[in-house]
Design goal:
Helix content is 40%, strand content 18%. It contains five helices and six strands. Helix 4 links the parallel strand 5 and strand 6. The structure holds adenosine-5'-diphosphate. The site of adenosine-5'-diphosphate has 20 residues, from helix 1.
């Protein structure tokens, strides 16, 4: 798969990651939440929330961008992952859409590097073993369409998630 060699996985805190854009696993209000969303707003300062207020929310599977306040990134791409409901409610397609839209937006913003958390795998309950291959495959497809993006990094917050993403990435590389 063409874009897959521009994907890497790493252990860390995405708020410390100096990509042109970092992706936030937001909720549809875009008005802040827990998990990675709370961490991004805490570390980035109030300007991100100010901008989010003017965006009028975001549909599940879609993405919207703001500046990155005090973060080392230039942009935050807020995307809304699906809540896991057992797998028959379109969750896989919605998770894919989050990655597709985020890559598209990163390309529109002129980003060369973009970093993702493991969207929906926290409070939203999407099993990481199912989420990782969808996230990686859809991102690789997006990178293949947007040659200007040089690298996408999945920044995983636990060793367990890192191992699952590493395994899925190795599977895609074949
Ligand atoms: P969701 O509601 O989409 O599930 P969460 O924020 O609850 O969003 O979790 C998404 C993923 O982000 C989880 O795997 C969680 O461990 C991870 N996460 C939480 N904080 C950070 C952080 N600072 N950097 C990177 N990943 C994080």
């Amino acid at each position: 798969m063409q874009g897959v060699h521009r994907i890497e996985v790493a252990l860390g805190d995405i708020t410390r990651h100096a990509a042109d854009a970092i992706v936030n696993a937001a909720n549809s209000s875009l008005l802040g939440g827990g998990g990675v969303d709370g961490a991004i707003h805490r570390a980035g300062g109030p300007s991100i929330l100010e901008e989010c207020r003017r965006l009028g929310g975001c549909a599940t599977g879609d993405a919207k961008a703001t500046g990155a306040g005090d973060l080392p990134a230039r942009h935050v791409i807020h995307t809304v992952g699906p809540v896991w409901q057992g797998g028959d409610a379109g969750e896989e397609e919605l998770l894919a859409s989050c990655h597709r839209r985020s890559v598209e937006l990163a390309a529109e913003l002129g980003c060369r590097t973009v970093a993702f958390p493991a969207i929906s795998t926290g409070v939203y309950g999407f099993p990481v073993e199912l989420a990782a291959p969808i996230a990686l495959r859809t991102t690789a497809e997006g990178l293949a369409r947007h040659e200007a993006i040089e690298r996408a990094t999945f920044v995983l917050f636990s060793e367990g998630h890192l191992r699952v993403f590493e395994h899925a990435l190795a599977g895609l590389r074949g």
